[in-house]
Amino acid sequence: MDGFRALGLGEEILLALEKKGFEQPTPIQSLTIPLLLNGEKDVVGQAQTGTGKTAAFSLPIIEKFDEKSKKIQALVITPTRELALQVANEIVAYKGSKRMWITTVYGGAPIGKQMSELEKGTHVVVGTPGRIIDLIKRRKLILDDVKYVVLDEADEMLNMGFIDDIELILQSCNEDRRMLLFSATMPKPILQLAKRYMKDFEKVEVQKEELTNEMIDQLYYEVGERDRFDALCRVLDVEEDFYGIIFCNTKAEVIEICNHLNDKGYYADALHGDIQQNLREKVVKNFKQNKYGVLVATDVAARGIDIQDLTHVINYGLPQDPESYVHRIGRTGRAGKTGKAIAFVSRNEKRKMLMIERISNSKMQKVNLPDAFEMVKIKKNRIKDDIESIIETEHYEEYLTFALDLLKENDPTTLVAAVLKHFVKDELDPKSYKKIKESTSENYSKKVVRLFYAKGRQDGITPKVILNELKDKTGVDSRKINDIKIMQNFSFFNTNGDDAELILAVYKKNKGKRPIVERARERN
């Protein structure tokens, strides 16, 4: 914890970080925390999702938290409900034993309960722009004494059309507040917002981590949620000399998968954010010494662990953001050695996978799971190799007398078959392997999908305008867009299934409004 201690954080926060498994600060934390603790300027930070931004701004806020005050001391504005909940949960974990109350406010949930929490008193409010404005107008969210205002994922809020809402919120805040703005990119409107509402500010920047390691083979299997664990076991059986991490998105999933693996006879251990430090150190030490080859972990738990020579990284579920995917798979394929990054992708995650590929500038290769007969063949070869290895390299003289006694009483072929049956049980029986179906149909990517575009001739739309916009916003090749039809107020076009998913993901629903691009409704 010396790295965090050197930044100026107190022992109470250091203890909370230690419990969460943090060892060393990330670059954005090293740059930002001292500025917020020791300086008085506002801060503009440019860093990708997954680089530790939440801790970078929340740890100084917690450190300077006034436990005597009952007023709202910090407001964190996020573009989505999911991010608001994530940020709030992280702040709760970092605050340790401090009596700091955190309230999340967002649309799509009953406003009455949120108003009730604000009326009881809270110190930190984390929420989305629309609901924050609603509560301000109802005089339930009073920001006259707020000390910190944080804009998280500012460029995403710009893309979602929240820039006017942000300005309205800032006008309702205490003029002497300190403002912190974090964004992955710095488009002109974001910089203009900073200049308009910030006093003197320091700008810190962390270079984007690019996925450039050609030593990593990126593969994915299309499997349904129910078959995911069986697919994992099959992969562990097929991949030789497995020494890797299986990443899950939740603590509950880590515990469940680890327990199931051990019940099945695999040697696995778990690592998640709630594991105590002494046990965590033991788990990491055992894994580094290769006492077992499988570690099941969450992103937070695996952060800061220096583990070399991993042969595999498995994404049991795809992470929410592409940068986390880059961080995960970057743990293999090091020091000139080839590594494998394997992902299980369900039908519902296909859109997320396409976004990860696009933003990380990488491509995952689809592969098929071996069927029951292939599994039996692989295991037979593995058993044969193991036996030959024992004959060539190990001492087995103490078993020779016993073997001769058995051979005197039994036919050699029958004896070997019985020994195999005793030790491998039903592993060589094709009936013991359930059939795993693909989550999506093989022809989905070739399926023609009709999309609706909410602009037409009156908006100056032509086929060329649509093609150029789609190429700029989504990267989809114009040759994959066809059958464009321009109407007075709207348009239509066709593309294949995979590209349709990518386009729909980019033109996602914003602020409760109808998206510009959506699936065309079928006529009866």
Which key terms come to mind for this protein?
524 residues; alpha/beta; seven-stranded parallel beta sheet; 21 helices; 18 strands; 42% helix; 16% strand
Write the layout of secondary structure elements.
Blueprint (H helix, E strand, L loop, with lengths): L1 H5 L4 H9 L7 H12 L3 E5 L6 H11 L10 E4 L3 H14 L7 E4 L5 H10 L3 E4 L1 H9 L10 E4 L2 H6 L3 H9 L6 E6 L4 H10 L3 E5 L10 E7 L5 H11 L5 E4 L3 H13 L4 E4 L5 H12 L5 E4 L1 H4 L9 E4 L6 H8 L9 E7 L4 H11 L4 E2 L5 H22 L6 H10 L2 H13 L23 E6 L9 H12 L7 E5 L4 E6 H10 L10 E3 L5
Parallel strand pairs: 1-6, 1-7, 2-4, 2-5, 3-4, 5-6, 8-13, 8-14, 9-11, 9-12, 10-11, 12-13
Antiparallel strand pairs: 15-17, 15-18, 16-17
Helix pairs in contact: 3-4, 4-5, 7-9, 15-16, 16-21
Brief overview:
This protein has 524 residues and is of the alpha/beta class.
Largest sheet: 7 strands, parallel
* Assembly state of the chains shown: single chain
**What structural category characterises the helix and strand content?**
alpha/beta
Radius of gyration: 28 Å
- Shape call: globular
Tell me, rounded to a whole number, the average pLDDT.
84
Instruction: Provide the β-strand percentage band.
Output: 15-25%
Low-confidence stretches: none
Task: Give a description of the structure.
There is one protein chain. The protein has 524 residues and is α/β, with parallel strands linked by helices. It starts with a helix and ends in a 5-residue tail after the last strand. A hairpin with a 4-residue loop joins β16 and β17 (491-496). The longest helix has 22 residues, at 372-393. The mean pLDDT is 84. 42% of the residues lie in helices and 16% in strands. The strands form 3 sheets. The protein has a 7-stranded parallel beta sheet, with helices on both faces. A 7-stranded parallel beta sheet has the order 10-11-9-12-13-8-14, sandwiched between helices. Strands 16-17-15-18 form a 4-stranded antiparallel beta sheet. The chain has helices spanning 2-6, 11-19, 27-38, 53-63, 81-94, 111-120, 129-137, 154-159, 163-171, 188-197, 228-238, 251-263, 277-288, 299-302, 322-329, 350-360, 372-393, 400-409, 412-424, 463-474, 497-506, and strands at 42-46, 74-77, 102-105, 124-127, 148-151, 178-183, 201-205, 216-222, 244-247, 268-271, 294-297, 312-315, 339-345, 365-366, 448-453, 482-486, 491-496, 517-519.
